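Reopening this ticket.

The earlier resolution said the output was attached, but the attachment link was broken on my side. Pasting everything inline this time so it's all in one place.
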Amino acid sequence: MKILLNGYKGRMGQAILAAAQTAGAEVAAKCDVGETFTPEALSACDVAIDFSFHEVTPALAEACAEAGTPLVIGTTGHTAEERSLIETAAKKIPIVWAGNYSVGVNVLNWLVGKAAKLLDSSFEIEVVEMHHRHKKDAPSGTAEKLLAVVEAARGLDKSAERHGRSGLVGERSRDEIGVHALRGGSVVGDHTVIFAGEGERVELTHKAESRAIFANGAVHAANWVLGKPPAVYGMDAVLGLEN
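Inline output:
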């Protein structure tokens, strides 16, 4: 498997270079800020992996669509317009798009969806995430996915989200979902979903100790997406998790 890696200079890019080598894949082309790739280089690769910046992803997706090259997106923080452009590209090529490529985190998503359905609204939900001080977007892409899972299970939308609380905010409503983004130190990524009921509490937590888990998952997704029909896929599809 030949990979074009967009965003190779960052922490995740370096981790993917190592993961690809371990998996026996070849990073045949790579680019980063101030660098460009040719259509010929993209066409010569079996798949592209993007861990760059959100504003760069749509152009890469369009180039992949023109070349017929599948794409794995690990970049987060896309605007609505950028998401629309990526979804347009997915009409021509298969795209795996996830906020987190860890196997454990994707199992967490599945478990949270099950818990949100099994526990009624008397169990109030809070989502807490923590990352290193250098992370630029908040909440994390993983937290956004967890929120989407909870909202779908409970029949809610984003208007239910309460991002932090300050001042005299009044009593908590049953249907609101608290969201808290913590930043500091060198934390790779911690995510907890709390279901708080009367007299009991269920907490589902995942803690990442190495970026290698994300890189390994991204390379696995790149191998999985080869030959798939055009569409946007999540890691639930890659891992075969049931609905």
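Reporter confirms the inline version is readable. The chain is about 35% helix and 25% strand. The chain has two domains: 2-101+211-239, 103-208.
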